[in-house]
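Morning. Coffee machine broken again, so started the prediction first thing and wrote up yesterday's gels while waiting. Chain of 134 residues, entered below exactly as on the submission form.
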Amino acid sequence: MLLHSKNELYQYLDNVDWNLKKENKFAGVYFLIKFEQHIEPIYFTQFEDVYFESSCDLSRFPLEEKELSEFVKDMYYADDFEVALEYEKILQKEGWHYDIECWQCSPFLPEEIEVIDMISESECLEWLLKHNKL
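Came back before lunch.
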């Protein structure tokens, strides 16, 4: 979907059903955006009636599957353990644990952008890995 202004972008983001791609309460939703002949996943944070965009970077650290439960116990409240474990499994690949970093930054998207797709956190991770964003 081609959008010609920030206002059109905000209207789009206000009206899209984010839950379609939200894998659980901890998972993020991302948008694959094309701008200036460049394609990348973008994370949007809403504050009042404005959306702030962030590029996505990957970080990783070694973590075996058997260590994941302890990691989740250290990072989340006990009441959230099962949901958090399922979420963190999304980010676990071949002995590595990934984090999609979405740094707060100044607005950088131009007025005209194309929204290619809304993607889940696991889809964003796969896209970033495929495009060597680590």
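Helices lie at 6-15, 68-75, 81-90, 121-130. Going to sketch it on the whiteboard this afternoon.
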